[in-house]
From TrEMBL:
Residues 8-91 form the IPT/TIG domain. Keywords: Exocytosis, Protein transport, Transport. Component of the exocyst complex involved in the docking of exocytic vesicles with fusion sites on the plasma membrane. The keyword Transport applies. Residues 180-775 form the Exocyst complex component EXOC2/Sec5 N-terminal domain. It comes from Pygocentrus nattereri. The keyword Protein transport applies. PANTHER family: EXOCYST COMPLEX COMPONENT 2 (PTHR13043:SF1), EXOCYST COMPLEX COMPONENT SEC5 (PTHR13043). This is Exocyst complex component 2. It holds the Pfam family TIG. GO terms for cellular component: exocyst. One of its GO terms (biological process) is protein transport.
Length: 791
């Protein structure tokens, strides 16, 4: 017959070991469709079908017989599936027989006897065994049944009569037996009381051991939690706690409740420990995320992530304050705080006002500059992690969205969205504090009076060179770029942009002021050596100074993305124009001062041994010191060069570097130098022409000369020769300094002499013949001099 079902498969037995007649539960698949379908069951080779009780297709209950094998398989046979297989085994435990009074740690149950007849599958007591056929005849038909019924009635009547007589006859024996049994019961109680007591104690101990073994995870959990906390295995602690909570969180067993309460106490201490570690500073972003996840898994009360953000915000502000910008760090406290500041960024050079950098440059830099460097380091190193922690908090990546935790994560995300304005206020407070501290150190006048007392207190008497302000601008720009890279909204960083604009304006004005001071010291470098063009090195030094100043302003004045143009600010335009004009006028004033110095006022220690051009006599002068007239000529030549070349070159440089008022600066400067040139020229002409003009009239009338009564001319008189020699010496002096000045100077001197001669001749009322001839000779002599000059 073909089988429609799969053969039986035994997959489990409980217990899996025991003594004979141990009751076991067999579990598996296809164990039969009903009691009648089960036709075979063997354990360790022993047939256990008689004691088998079919419960379902996956469960059978039976007792293990006295099998010969100590260990074997469980085989189930059904009509529908045939003989099955087993994936488990059963082990039969053998025990020694003990006497009635022998001590034993295990209570031995009474032996159950079963009818092993093959036609019975239900266990019976041996006392209930009866003959197989109580009717005494074989029943083949109805007549046989009627006869058997009569026999049964006869036997019943005889039994009743015999039983009654037996009872009446043995009544006394019954009472004696009853008394004997009562005495035996008392004797048995006395004999077995100790044994029964040991049995109860053994049962209690065994039950307690079974409970401890079965629930050893819970009982060992407090100690395991303590050990794992000491080792730092917080993940193991959390997993064990979750398991214990799912198993014993709602238990009503007193001992379990007591142990679980101890577990909760240890977990509460762990929550406090993790929260302390989370709020501890400094700490890395990785550790912060790890502790937040631990606290989330432990269902810590409140919002640990937000508590960490608040603690980090306070710590960043404290670090910034400790850099040395607070009011409490004044005097000696401020000096000790600033002495610990380390300079980390490099200083870019490019200005003539910057000294060469050496190993000790950071100790020479101003305290405010070192303070800004330290402040920037704090912001750049701490704020990115602070921002990333907030982003992780908002998007929920700090928590694991698994199972029942997903609801908690959604709640925390909702809390984060509600706290966006609070976090925005934290970022704005950090940037605002940064700006306030920098302004208090470098721009105290831009702060209100109350904030100036809080964040100021620095030495404002020392003016920091433009190079240090350039370094500060570079540092603040790096800070702004680092924060922008985090995608922090621009409105939160606007205060830094405003600070940069003010710093750039301050750098511009400071650099111009320092340049003006440097220009005022340029006359000390004047060596009075003229080149072929008739100028000294002073105009070139001035131009070099201005160009280097503009080059030093190139970086701070350069407009980075998002920055405003300094020169588009009306205040900056006006101040820069005034300072640039002031620089030009300062240099012009220096030229004028040089022209008015006497010989004793000039320091000739740095002057060259010889002039750049030979004088009219071609001689070389040692320890050359220019005369006042020579200084006037040299300065006049320098003024002409400034007007025609230097100021025009500077105008191009100013326009190239963004100065929108370059034309105005050039125009005002040229007007000023023209005024100086005119004054100096008139002074030189006055010094040179007055002696010549003044000597004409005394020379003419020397010896009581009379135009009406004079001798015929025989030659040129001495005074005229002296005048001509004086003019020639002026020509030589001017030509030695600058050829371009010769026409301008000599034309004015000859003009003055001519005017004087004309005046003198007009004063003569009449001339004699010889007097007229004298006038012709003088005129001819001047014509020769003028012609020679023009040739």
């Amino acid at each position: 017959m073909s089988r429609a079902r799969q053969p039986p498969l035994v997959t489990g037995i409980s217990p899996n070991e025991g003594t004979p007649w141990t009751k076991v539960t067999i579990r598996g698949e296809n164990l039969g469709t009903g009691p009648n379908d089960l036709i075979g069951l063997s354990i360790c080779g022993h047939n256990c079908l008689l004691t088998a009780e079919w419960m379902s297709a996956s469960k059978i209950v039976c007792r293990v017989g006295p099998a010969k094998d100590d260990k074997g398989e469980i085989i189930v046979t059904t009509r529908s599936g045939g003989k099955g297989t087993s994936t488990v085994s059963f082990k039969v435990l053998r025990h020694e027989k003990i006497g009635i009074l022998d001590q034993s740690a295990v209570w031995v149950d009474e032996m159950n006897y079963y009818d092993m007849r093959t036609d019975r599958n239900k266990g019976i007591s041996p006392l209930s065994l009866r003959p197989a056929n109580p009717l005494g005849i074989d029943i083949d038909n109805f007549e046989h049944l009627r006869v058997a019924s009569g026999n049964l009635k006869k036997q019943a009547s005889k039994k009743n009569e015999g039983s009654l007589a037996y009872v009446k006859g043995g009544l006394s024996t019954f009472f004696e037996a009853q008394d004997a049994l009562a005495g035996a019961s008392n004797t048995a109680d006395t004999l077995f009381q100790e044994v029964l007591g040991r049995k109860d104690k053994a049962d209690s101990t065994r039950n307690a051991l079974n409970v401890l073994q079965r629930f050893k995870f819970l009982f060992n959990l407090p100690l395991n939690i303590e050990r794992n906390i000491q080792k730092g295995d917080y993940d193991v602690v959390i997993n064990d706690y979750e398991k214990a909570k799912s198993l014993f969180g709602n238990t009503e067993v007193p001992v379990f409740k007591k142990v679980y309460a101890e577990v909760e106490t240890r977990i509460g201490a762990l929550r406090n420990l993790l929260l302390d570690k989370l709020l501890e500073t400094p700490s890395t972003l990785h550790d912060q995320k790890r502790y937040i996840r631990y606290l989330s898994d432990l269902h810590a009360p409140g919002d640990p992530a937000w508590q960490c953000i608040v603690a980090q915000h306070k710590w960043i502000l404290q670090l910034m304050q400790n850099c040395g910008g607070g009011l409490e760090l004044d005097g000696e406290l401020r000096s000790s705080a600033l002495s610990r500041i380390s300079h980390t960024a490099s200083l870019k050079r490019g200005s003539s006002f910057q000294s060469p950098r050496d190993d000790s440059w950071q100790y020479k830099s101003p305290q405010q500059v070192r303070f800004v460097e330290k402040l920037s380091d704090v912001v750049i190193s701490q704020l990115p992690n602070f921002w990333k922690l907030w982003i992780s908090y908002v998007n929920g990546s700090l928590f694991s969205e698994t199972g029942e935790k997903s609801g908690q994560v959604e709640k925390l995300k909702k809390n984060a969205r509600q706290r966006q304005n609070d976090f925005k206020g934290m970022i704005e407070e950090v940037t605002r504090r940064l700006v306030q501290l920098v302004r208090g150190a470098l721009l105290p006048t831009t702060l209100p009076q109350e904030q100036r007392r809080l964040y100021g207190g620095w030495d404002t008497k020392t003016i920091h060179p433009g190079a240090w302000l350039t370094q500060v601008i570079h540092t603040i720009r790096l800070t702004h770029d680092a924060l922008s890279a985090l995608e922090i909204p621009n409105d939160m960083l606007q205060v830094i942009q405003d600070l940069l604009l003010d710093l750039r304006m301050q750098c511009l004005l400071t650099t111009l002021q320092q340049t003006a001071e440097d220009v005022k010291r340029l006359p000390e470098k004047e060596d009075w050596i003229v080149d072929n063009e008739g100028i000294t090195s002073l105009p070139a030094l001035f131009e070099q100074c201005m160009v280097q100043m503009l080059q030093s302003l190139k970086e701070p004045m350069e407009c980075k993305p998002g920055e405003a143009n300094v020169f588009q600010q009306e205040l900056a335009q006006d101040e820069a124009c005034k300072l640039c004009v002031g620089i030009m006028k300062a240099f012009i004033n220096c030229l004028e001062q040089l022209s008015t110095k006497t010989d004793g006022d000039i320091d000739t220690s740095h002057l060259s041994v010889e002039m750049g051009s030979p004088d009219v006599f071609g001689s070389i002068h040692e320890d050359f010191s220019p005369s006042p007239e020579q200084r006037l000529l040299i300065i006049l030549s320098n003024c002409q060069y400034l007007e025609r070349h230097t100021f025009l070159n500077l105008a191009e440089h100013l326009e190239k570097h963004g100065f929108t008022t370059a034309d105005k600066i050039t125009r005002v400067s040229r007007e000023a130098v023209c005024e100086l040139d005119e004054r100096l020229f008139e002074s030189y002409i006055e010094k040179k022409s007055d002696p010549i003009v003044g000597s004409l009239e005394p020379g003419i009338y020397a010896g009581y000369f009379d135009w009406k009564d004079c001798l015929p001319p025989t030659g040129v008189r001495s005074y005229l020769k002296e005048a001509l020699v004086s003019i020639i010496s002026v020509h030589a002096e001017v030509f030695t300094v600058s050829k371009e000045l010769v026409p301008r100077v000599l034309s004015r001197i000859i003009e003055s002499v001519s005017e004087e001669m004309s005046r003198l001749m007009q004063c003569v009322s009449s001339f004699s013949k010889n007097g007229a001839l004298q006038v012709q000779n003088k005129t001819f002599a001047f014509i020769i001099v003028i012609g020679h000059w023009y040739l």
